[in-house]
Amino acid sequence: MYDYIKGIFFYKTINIKGAYAVVEAAGIGYQLEILPRDYEQLPKEGEELKIYSVLLHREDKMSLCGFLRREDRDIFNVLTSVSGVGSKMALTLLNSFKVKDLVGFVLDGDYKELTKAKGVGPKLAQKIILELKDKLTSYQNDTITLPKGNNISSEENNSQNVQDAQMVLVSLGYEKKEISEAVAKAVNTLSQSAPAEEILKKSLQILSI
Question: What's the rounded Cα separation, in Å, for the pair 200 and 98?
Answer without folding.
Answer: 13
